[in-house]
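Have a think about this chain, C-alpha cells included, and walk me through the fold.
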Amino acid sequence: MSRTTDILLTALAPAVWGSTYLVTTEALPAGYPITLAALRALPAGLLLVALTRSLPPRAWLGRTLLLGSLNFALFWSLLFVAAYRLPGGVAATLGSLQAMMVILMARGWLGTPVRAGAVTAAATGVLGVALLLLGPEAAVDPVGVIAGIGGAASMAAGTVLSRKWQPPVSALSYTGWQLTAGGLILLPLAWIVEPSLPPLTALNLSGLIWLGLIGAGATYAIWFRGIARLEPGAVSMLGMMSPVTAVSLGWLWLGQGLSLLQMSGAAIVLISVWAGQRANRPRVAHSFRASRVAQSRAA
C-alpha cells in the first residue's frame, strides 16, 4: 500500500476512539471505570489470540506485559482518573501532549531525528485541541493533571516501544497479546478497588461489544499496523483525530452546540495533523538524490 493509504487507514483507529465518550456516557453503567476497561480489553484480546492461534513466545512475555501495561492497563487507568478529576477539555488537551512526547522518545529510543516542522505541528495540534475543548469551566486539579500527563506519557512510550519491538507475527496477533496482557493486569485491580457490576442490560452489552471488538480489537490492530509502517511522529499526530470525532458526535448525536472558536480549533487540529504527516515523512528521496550526486562526482 502507499503511504497515503496507510495514513488514512491508521487514522480510522483514533477516529473510532472518539466514540468512546459517547458510548461510555450513553450505554455503560457509571462508576466502574477499571472494571469496564478490563471487560473491554480481556475478551477482545482472548478472542484475537484464539482466532490467530498465536501465543507470545517466552522471550516476548516480558515485552508483552510491559506493552500491555503501557498501552492499555496504565493508560486507561490514568485516563479515567484524569476524566473524573478534570473537565473533559482539560483532560483531552493534556492527552494531546502525547504527540510531542513521542517525538522526544523516538529520538532517544529509535534515533529518529527531531524535525522542527514535526515539533511545530504537534504544538499547533495541542493549541487546536485546547480551542476545541477548553471552556470557561476549565479547572486544574493537581492529581488530575498528573494523571493526564502520565496517561499521555504511557501511551507515547507504548507507541514508540511497539515500533521498536516488532515480533514476526500479524498485527492481529500482536494486538491480541497486548490486550490480553492489559486485561489480566486490570482484572485483579478492578476486583480490589471497585464494587461488583450490576446486572447488565442489552444496551450495556451492546456498548461493551462496540468498545471491545471495534474500539479495542479492530482499531488497535489497525493502530499497531500503522506503527509498524509509519513514522512514530506521524502516527502520534493522527491521535488528535479522536477529540475531533468526539466533538462531532456530540454535535450530531446529542445536539451539543459548536461555537466559532471550537470550529476554528477543529480546523487547526486537522491542518496540524496534515502538516505532521508531511513533516514526519521519511527523507528517502533526498537521500537517493544525494547518493546519485555523490556517485556522479566520483565517476
